Records
---
Amino acid sequence: MAGIKRYKKEDLETYCLGATVSMEFLNACPQHVTKVFVHSAFYESETKEKICRICEQNQIPMEINDKAFSILSQKENCFVIAVVRKYFCELDSKASHVVLVNPSNAGNAGTIIRSALGFGVPNIAIIRPAVDLFDPKVIRASMGALSRVNFRYYDSWEEYVNKEGAGTRHFYPFMLDGSTLLHETKIEKPFSLVMGNEATGLPAEFSKIGCPVRIEHGHRIDSLNLPIATSIGLYEATKGDF
């Protein structure tokens, strides 16, 4: 079908698959939504009425197009697809950040984005090489939370530090051999919680950056998975804020 094709990283637009995810983008940043596809089986509901109202208010075209779903989604329960024009973000340099160094898994990235937003840290730095946050798999895993966070890519750790201010923030690399235990660490703001790749963790040189921390756990596992470790770090860093 002309104009509708599976997502590729180099595309200028991406897709939100599902009514809940699409609604997040329609509510948070309708200016980036260029079209909404609706499946003919999408029953009349309050959600459908809200989608129609937002599209009408923002002059976003809506189209009943079942073929689009067969091309773009493998989920049988997907009845809404929002088409989103990619956009550029800047981080708040004075705020706390989550820093993901070479993340590679779309599901993990989406889960971390949702956790970061939930704990009130909506600024996410990504050090390349890294997963594409505009991948529909990331957007779906975040349950649309991507629409409500600031994120920016950096070609290196040094670029991130130079851009976001080395002298004004506190760095906490999470490492298996971190010098201090997380629950014994006073995390000062603005902080950068620095998380490594899912398989390899952070490079050894991060042990000399800021205050390296480790999460204590039983010896029957070698490590926690990345989204869980990040969520634990976010909880410790923000407890008392809510």
Note: The CA atoms of residues 119 and 234 lie 6 Å apart.
---
Amino acid sequence: MTPLAGSPNTPLEPPERHSTRQRTVSPSGQAARKSARIIGTGSYLPEKVLTNSDLEKMVDTSDEWITTRTGIKERRIASPEEPTSSLATEAARRAIEDAGIAAEEIQLIIMATFTGDVLMPATACLVQKNLGATRAAAFDLSAACTGFIYGLSVAKQFVLSGFYDTVLVVAAEKLSCVTDWTDRNTCVLFGDGAGAAVVSSQGEGPRIIGEYLASDGSIYELLILPGGGSLHPPTHQTVDQGLHFLKMSGREVFKHAVTCMVDGAQKLITQHNLSPQDIRLLVPHQANKRIISEVGKRLGIPAERIYVNIERYGNMSAATTSVGMDEAFRSNQFNPGDKILLVAFGGGFTWGSVLLEW
């Protein structure tokens, strides 16, 4: 009688992890010391542009008011036919192409978002289907605006452990779906977009040399999307109360964002025995131009070494840091040894940083 799979007589074998790449093995048979590198990046922004002038026709605001307080001039808005998975898929395709690999070589997809297509299944699984990444495991990661930082950190651990060789990290948000377009204090801030990075132990690209993650859930209510979960399931009442739109205590969030982003950046600078002068480029979360300026001032990093694109895209949550990194890589000239520091802050509260070496 043939034993059933999983019975005491036939222990289950772990699933095979496919890869077309060869793993370097030392003479002793142990895997050689690995590094985690970003070997490809990509980003995608929807075609529709919503300007401050457009918003003047929608709510009681002005271009001068928005620009002075946020630094934002315009943002991108996805069409009704573009769910978050579509934005993520296009950014991922570009990152995979940039890495010079096939989708079948991706072994894990980490999707950073809080505006997934559906609550279940994970949007990462839909991206996997769209890409044809048939050998990849996939899961979503929820850390709000810090999602891409958290995702890179998780990807690095998988790669350094040897469990996977090639991991795709995607950060995508369709914030237009959870924005109250009658609230002039919040609707001017947000936009849609996606960015992606391929992290691998094989290939060329900037090395992830450090990461720092933090959170403080005691003040979670200052930045929250209240409705839709088990606390406030969707009902007529939650819809009428606007609980399915982002809620933010702007002044308090501003204060914590500056403090936490400075903390996240300074932690890695100190841990790696660096000075602010050693940071070739700071790529911060693009929440508010004044936040970015204050963070740079406190860190002692001049404006010319801080990447800023908020005037074109607004706050895209987890996608801001990934899009900023992709654009920076394509528009800046880096030399071997240059340090690039990513830092972000988001709901949770969560914050963190990633240090790259070119």
Note: The chain has ten helices and 13 strands.
---
Amino acid sequence: MSIAVACLAGCETLPEETRSRAPAATAADRRVPVPERDRVLYDYRTAATALRAGDYDVAKARLDDAIARIGGIIANDADAARARGLFSAESTKVFIGEPYERVMAYFYRGLLYWRDGERDNARACFRSGQVIDSDPGPKQENYAADYVLLDYLDGLASAKLHADGSDALARARAHAGPRLALPDYDLAANVLVFAEYGYGPRKFAGGQYGEQLRFHVEDSPSRSARLVLAGGRRIVPLPAYDDLGFQATTRGGRVMDHILGNKAQFKAAASVAGDIALAGSVVASDNARRRERRGKDGDDADAAAIGLGILGVLGKVASAATHAEADTRQWDNLPQRLSFAAFTLPPGEHLGRLEFLDREGQVLASRSRPVKFTVAPGERDTVVFLSELLR
């Protein structure tokens, strides 16, 4: 398993091994025409790849474009209205992603703002992410705005801006529950580590006609991580504070799910009606032939057979033309688990090792790798981004 390590600081060093293995697809992708309805999806994927490769300018540009677009899309625009119609697929509308995908755009942009020393903008991004997650649907109220790190980072940014972050810290601890011990804010901490590992949820279509949007979460063997520094004399735990698989599967229903359900019902009903009409056409045609063999007029039966045949064909055509399938376009290079740690180190270069642990807390040796980053002098925090994903 490859691990991308990016050090986001005023004076950062990206390990040579990571540079050489970073995907070169980003530059090539820029030359590929992207349909307007897929522009945000392209931005999402490219931003994540660029962030893991240490290409922060590209990551910021793509995230800024995506955020501007998802914030300006009107639900009742022509594409969205067309997608709600019987004969257009949901995938014809402009993609903005499910809530967990939109949240991650703000999460990544927030850590990049923090890297640039803009704590206020970082905090605004984390708060925007919680707003996106604040309406999980009926009977899912317990999962509203329940990202641990979004509240925790909101409070830390506030505290570093000399404001009160205690309410946000309390919310984060409530989300985390007793299983995770969130540390108090250390305002002297000058190193912020953002870590991600595992592979995020995958969308697929369920139901008779693919009208149900569902998620598959393949649990990663990496259940937690840690950063080992100073020859093993210091260990920084990196537990999984948030799980995108959990976030994807606790959102409840969408408005579009109801629309797709109605489409599926119409598709099924039209198909059944077509079958019945075609069967009736065959019966009427047989009756017409019998009357003719008896020397009677079969014109009425023939007319009925033709009419029923036309109705049957129309029903089958309408059924075939109805697109009830859910939109399974997805931000497919997201992680599963998110972690964070803040601590203090002196300015200069630091060496360490990133280790991933399994369910029993045993080190997954094949996934461990060396880490090198530089802590810049001054008041700006050094942001270190660690990812198990390569692109």
Note: Residues 4-259+324-387 form one domain.
